[in-house]
Automatic annotation (TrEMBL), chains A, B:
Start and end residues of each Aminoglycoside phosphotransferase domain: 27-258
Enzyme Commission number: 2.7.1.39
Biological processes per GO annotation: threonine biosynthetic process
Reaction(s) the record says it catalyses: L-homoserine + ATP = O-phospho-L-homoserine + ADP + H(+)
UniProt protein name: Homoserine kinase
The keyword Ribosomal protein appears for this protein: no
Enzyme's top EC category: transferase
SUPFAM superfamilies in alphabetical order: Protein kinase-like (PK-like)
Family: Belongs to the pseudomonas-type ThrB family.
The UniProt record lists the keyword tRNA processing: no
Pathway: Amino-acid biosynthesis; L-threonine biosynthesis; L-threonine from L-aspartate: step 4/5
GO molecular function, one term: ATP binding
Keywords for the protein's UniProt record, in alphabetical order: Amino-acid biosynthesis, ATP-binding, Kinase, Nucleotide-binding, Threonine biosynthesis, Transferase
Length: 322, 322
């Protein structure tokens, strides 16, 4: 949530000169994205988001992320198009950093989603999965089961227990979950980080899915599980809202019914989703000094959600739970 | 440069419901302003800046700042209008914090201003001074000469010398400058913080003067001196650019010729302007822990500018210096 690079007016105008978007009229650094700098840009031709990639991103992955936006957008998914330069490039280099210009989409990220909103988010996710099937580029999921173990081991038992005494045993849970991980569920492009702040809505309609910088090829049902774990709990008290979770799955299945194997796997996939956020948050917690620019997120929030999924099993995903 | 308050979609919609601006379509936290949270808002009716006042602002001062925008805007100065609520209020209270909705103005803050841009900024400042003369509210300058002494004393000789060995003697300079401070120059509303990042430009034209939260009633020539000290030096090497400084004064005098007493006072007023920033930056430096959210600004930058004004005298302000 910061602008890391101070891009002056002259540099900004030079950069936009590479594009056929008309004269620059306004550029506001926006507090969006955790590891990139972002500006809301206005030119004579419209509005755009300019993203400068600061860290945590492999330059070699950029064509996957940026071409994916074009692919999904061309398949009527509500994702922003990548604006290409006059020369046809999807990104430019500025002082050794990559920068991309992306379509601006209106909409507000819901903080307390309604069931109808959750239904429509499920639908948009399913349509994204269907549209992603014929995307020609591929990218492995670098945050799969082995990575959770690696990240938690990097934290160390001492580091984990300093954050919370209940955290070290997540290493065992991660190893057990990785062993049981289903290897052959149907795959496509997945977003893998579709928290409410990565969704823009106008009323009940999904006007945008954004921040595809964790997108990869992996099991579609895992992406639904990630989204379920991200949307169905009240952020303050971690209470599960069955109406939201149920609507999300229903909305998804309205466009892409789950196979039996996928449905059976959902509880384990959701525990894996929780482990992915537990592990990355724990590592960020240890690597981020208190009082630094970036807000640290509590890994324990997802320890509680993991327990919920382990206890509730398949019932967590039924449209009308008891 | 941060968004301090996390204002969710529901709270944002509730807040905007107090205004007659149509349905909310987008809200992006923007990295602008040092001590307030700001959002760029889009509604069915247009774009606005929403500012939430976090600290450093006296609630009792808000009507001065917000009514001033309306007054100057009604007098054709390029400043954003304050949007009033359906009930006619210029600000609302949200969870104990004041928030105001302000007109969005296009434009880019110049990082390397041209002489023509400086000329037009001088002109806009003069027109603001002329328009401010019949503004009925008043506010004293709380950052006048006595405040520099107070702030530097609060830093203490130890604190000052820890920042830089050359800094403690600024306490003596501040006392001497305060003693010589001209008491009776013509007054009006002054901006008193018109750095380039508080000016929006479209090409050579001033499209907006923003961030009036240091505005007060004081000597107009002091405001010109502040602007001169803020615009006429290269930020990196503190080299004086006589073309910029000269154009600024010329542009000012095209709308409001300086009286002899004002012109004679400019070198001392500019040294006072430098002391104002030296003192507040030194205090911020001491009060801001390294690695905190806010970037600390180097007080020594203005020690060097102060020396320049002391040595150069009136010649610093002549349109065509030798």
């Amino acid at each position: 949530m910061a602008v890391y690079t101070d891009l002056g007016a002259a540099a900004m105008e030079r950069l936009l000169g590479e594009y056929d978007v008309g004269a620059l009229r306004s550029a506001k650094g926006i507090a969006e994205g955790v590891s990139n700098s972002n500006w809301l840009i206005e030119t004579a031709q419209g509005r755009f988001i300019l993203t400068m990639y600061e860290r945590r991103i492999e330059l070699g992955d950029l064509p996957y992320f940026l071409d994916l936006l074009d692919h999904l957008s061309a398949h009527d998914c509500p994702v922003p198009r990548t604006i290409h330069t006059k020369r046809g490039d999807s990104f430019v280099m500025v002082d050794g950093k990559a920068a991309a210009l992306i379509e601006y989409l209106p909409g507000i990220s819901p903080d307390r989603p309604s069931a109808e909103q959750a239904h429509n988010v499920g639908g948009a996710l399913a349509r994204m999965h269907l549209a992603g099937r014929d995307f020609e580029k591929t990218r492995p999921n670098t945050l799969g089961p082995q990575s959770w173990i690696d990240m938690l081991e990097e934290c160390g038992v001492g580091g984990l227990s300093e954050i919370d005494p209940a955290l070290p045993k997540m290493l065992t849970v991660a190893r057990q979950t990785a062993e049981r991980w289903p290897p052959d569920l149907p795959q496509s492009v997945i977003h893998s980080d579709l928290f409410p702040d990565n969704v823009l809505m106008l009323g009940e309609r999904v006007s945008g899915m954004i921040d595809f910088y964790f997108a990869c090829n992996d099991a579609m049902a895992y992406d639904l599980a990630v989204t379920h774990a991200a949307w169905s709990f009240d952020a303050s008290d971690t209470a599960f809202d069955p109406a939201i979770g149920g609507a999300l799955v229903e909305g998804y299945e309205a466009h892409r019914p789950l196979a039996n194997a996928e449905r059976k796997a959902l509880p384990l996939l959701a525990q894996g989703a929780c482990l992915r956020f537990i592990a990355s948050r724990a590592l960020d917690w240890i690597e981020t000094p208190p009082g630094a620019l970036v807000m640290r997120k509590d890994p324990m929030q997802f320890v509680r959600r993991l327990k919920f999924y382990a206890e509730r099993g398949e019932k967590a995903f039924t449209p009308s739970p008891i």
